[in-house]
Amino acid sequence: MSDEEVWLIEPSGPLRGDVVVRGSKNGVSKHMVAAMLGTGESIIGNAPEVGEVGITASMLRALGITVEIDDSEIRIEQGPRIEPRVPAEYTGLNRIPILMLGPLLHLAGEAFVPLVGGDPIGRRPIDFHVAALRDMGAEVEIQEGGVYAKAKRLNGTRLELPYPSVGATETILMSAVLAEGKTVLKNAAMEPEVVELALFLQRMGARIELSPDRRIVIEGVERLHGAQTWLAGDRIEAFSYLAAGLVTGGEVRVHGCPQDRLVTAITTLARMGARFEINDEYLCATAPPEGLRAAAVQTDTHPGFMTDWQTPLMVLFTQSHGMSVLHETVFENRLVYVPALQAMGCEIEVFDQCLGGPACRYHDSNAKHSAVVRGVSQLKGADVRLPDIRAGFSAVLAAAVADGPSTLRGVHHIERGYHRPFEQFKTLGLDIQRRG
Ligand code: EPU
């Protein structure tokens, strides 16, 4: 018998109330890695309580870094001896080990990291990371079970990413800050989480210039020191709870996420008919009495409609009037969760063509990366297994508007990246119970 935790959800009407979002899973873990690079203590404030923090903390401890976590505050300090190998037990848990290559090269001159994991939303290659480190002078070998790298000192160089990858930009930032000389990176990712990381590194003493044309210039320095920062609220969680209010015909006030992280999301929802109240305290969206309208949305790099917003949007589409179209252009397999929603009665059809926008990188592939969604459909409760974190949250939304109870399995995916989601949903009035 499995002792896996499951959530039992009974639809219980409109979700209403207040949610405070903390720093993001995708911000906090990178800050924890960056903090390795400073001599002296770094303090990361407003950290979420998510599984990803625990995984990253134990990886760092295995490398000889001191990590103390006290609710929303994380303190990190280099230990006297750095172990250059991330243990194999961390294989496949998340995307963080690949980001440790650059920092470990600076601290130990060599590094081994197990092959990365993350959600099954695409091939998730690491070729950009490896190519950049090689261009900066590292010897990098793909070995069985991981990546080995060696370098006496990394050198600054001119780099251009084939696609503005968030992770590869972060690898380059954390490798270039202590490299010899200047690194010029073209076609960098400019997601708010990347900029937040650059600002933290700047507080640690790094010399970084951000240009408006996706160019980042980093002048390597001899050393970095510890620094203190406060993470901005998670724009994925913020959008997800706004969608939770809208899809159930309720009203969720989201505190803690700056409006400028949600510009495209707000406009997309407003085009569908959502009415917003936005002030310096919170953001809140409500559906008009006649319900939301269908839309055509294409995901993109920042400042476009982010890929992680599309899973709750998809459930919203099923409850909006008309046929909606979604074109996913960032991860080829992001629609892997659609069968779980179909099992709950969502009328979604997936296509390998680029629908609802210009041809993307997956135009000639077999990847089913576009979807047509019919609304309004009556969803039904079901017993479903969640394939990944963002899909998991969407299944909760579908269960909240379904006819009948649902059993959700694999909820650890949700807990890896959302701050206390079970408690938040309970506060909003969802009839949700834990078993297992
Ligand atoms: N890519 C390559 N080669 C590489 C790196 C990326 O081809 O070496 C491709 C990817 O396959 C993908 C595209 O570039 O098609 C974009 O990937 P990116 O590197 O930007 O994504 P990531 O860094 O792996 C982060 C977040 C994702 C978020 C994306 C886009 C973390 C840990 N993950 O992934 O978040 O969707 O950026 O904003 O920061 C999530 O939280 O659920 C999640 C998947």
UniProtKB/TrEMBL annotation:
Belongs to the EPSP synthase family. MurA subfamily. Residues 10-422 form the Enolpyruvate transferase domain. It is found in: Cytoplasm. Signal peptide: none annotated. The active site is at D119 (proton donor). Its main location: cytoplasm. InterPro entries: Enolpyruvate_Tfrase_dom, Enolpyruvate_Tfrase_sf, MurA_subfamily, RNA3'P_cycl/enolpyr_Trfase_a/b, UDP_GlcNAc_COvinyl_MurA. This is UDP-N-acetylglucosamine 1-carboxyvinyltransferase. It is an enzyme of class 2 (transferase). Pfam families: EPSP_synthase. It catalyses: phosphoenolpyruvate + UDP-N-acetyl-alpha-D-glucosamine = UDP-N-acetyl-3-O-(1-carboxyvinyl)-alpha-D-glucosamine + phosphate. Keywords: Cell cycle, Cell division, Cell shape, Cell wall biogenesis/degradation, Cytoplasm, Peptidoglycan synthesis, Transferase. Pathway: Cell wall biogenesis; peptidoglycan biosynthesis. Its EC number is 2.5.1.7. UDP-N-acetyl-alpha-D-glucosamine binds at R95, D308, V330. Cell wall formation. Adds enolpyruvyl to UDP-N-acetylglucosamine. Phosphoenolpyruvate binds at K25, N26. The keyword Cell wall biogenesis/degradation applies. SUPFAM superfamilies: EPT/RTPC-like. PANTHER family: UDP-N-ACETYLGLUCOSAMINE 1-CARBOXYVINYLTRANSFERASE. HAMAP family: MurA.
